[in-house]
Amino acid sequence: MKAAILGGGIMGVTLGYLLSRRGVTVEVFEASPNLGGLAGPLTLDDGTEVDRYYHAILSSDSFLRELCTELGIADRLRFRQTRMGFFYQGRVYSMNSTLEFLRFPPLGWIDRLRLGLTVVYAQMVRDWTSLEGVDVEKWLVQLSGRRTYENIWRPLLKAKFDGGFERTPATYIWARLVRMKSTRGGANQKEEAGYIIGGYQTLVKAMAERIEAAGGTVHLRCPVQEVAIDGGRARGVRVNGELHPFDAVIGTMQTPIFQRLIPGAPKQYHDFLNQRRYLGIVSPLMILDRPLTGYWTINMTDDRFPFTGVIETTAYIDPKHVGGYHLVYLPKYTAPGSPLLTLSDEEIRETWLSNLEQMFPDFDRRSVRYFLVNRERFVEPIHELNSRHLIPPVKTAVEALYLVTTAQIYPDLTNGEAVARHAARAAETVLESLAVRRAVPEAAPATAIADVAAD
Ligand SMILES: Cc1cc2nc3c(=O)[nH]c(=O)nc-3n(C[C@H](O)[C@H](O)[C@H](O)COP(=O)(O)OP(=O)(O)OC[C@H]3O[C@@H](n4cnc5c(N)ncnc54)[C@H](O)[C@@H]3O)c2cc1C
After folding, report:
1. Which of 26, 27, 38, 53 to mutate to test the pocket of ligand 1 (most atoms within 8 A of CB)?
2. How far, in Å, are 64, 139, 420 from residue 14 at the CA level?
3. Domain 77-81+191-197+277-382, what architecture?
């Protein structure tokens, strides 16, 4: 069996590795010069490789840790105690202990107690399905009270969703709080973040090597132009104008990009995928010659600032692994069609830096070695209230064509751990389907959309 995997991000490469371990001959096609996708690297003029976007691994990311062990790279994992803070009315408040939490000024005693109980309550909820139809604002106001909602939750949600979050279910905050709990590691339950030396690249490259060792191929700078669909079945992929035949074709990119590659798929399937929306991101990376705050993350509760947070990854990545530099990311999530995606790099640089100067009067522009603006239109799938039926299934409406993508990850947040776990589940679906097709070579053509959507 020969399978083409479209996309060499964490999803595509994990899937390729797991399928090749089970005897499938895999070819991964990646459009860019590097593997890793959103978790891929940037190379500075001096040759230093840094993460294009900020990435942390948590000590509870057990699937990733097992993968690292299996691939012989577990000795490259590092974890460090870190700090998190909130920027509120012109200053940073550390939020790393109960005492600090109890001192946080915008809230009275009762509010603080209710906020603490909200976090504990959310982390105890096991049946998240009960929250799918519950509006996030309603849920948080009910649990935390109006003042805490206005001072803490609303600004955080507004920043994350670039304004509108009216149809967001409570599962979103639930998933965040559950993941937040797992950043607390060690006996003293202090905040911890981790990384692999060399970034997710190290993991992705190790898996790519195993794919090749098993007889597969990884093609870089190889954008797939089209999936060849004939008689309701995927026959292969078109690359550089040439058709490469495959028994199975698996797209791992975001659905709007996948759709461009499948003009031959039924219209109803396109209509179904068209309902999926994504948040984008504008995320400048500042490469500094000195630390900025020493905090891993500073959350903004003040929407006058254009960025959602200040994320200093060298609070947990040893600077010696990134050329001795200090890395600070200033992300802003963007709603579909946001004008921010069209601002020039220079405009973003000027706006972002002048705001940073207002936040931190000691910040000196001369410490900025590089200011690199990175943008992405499709980063995080948006899940609305009661919208599970809109999640696309792995088996598509076209026979032998599969879609394994972050939009299928719900209610978990889309991080490396969730992506790799999803790739493992999807590998089973693909293998089962291939086994059925091998047993019944003349299986019925394209499954009806309704059946597929119910998958
Ligand atoms: C700002 C930001 C911060 C994040 N922070 C964290 C974090 O702290 N921890 C964490 O674990 N995760 C984090 N993530 C999430 C993580 O990066 C993603 O969940 C993960 O990288 C998604 O991987 P993917 O393979 O599904 O998608 P992608 O990485 O988007 O991969 C899709 C790939 O498909 C390729 N492609 C597209 N079109 C074609 C084509 N026609 N032919 C061939 N290839 C094609 C693309 O080039 C890309 O490489 C963060 C993401 C962002 C954006």
Report:
1. 38
2. 10, 36, 6
3. Alpha-Beta Complex (3.90)
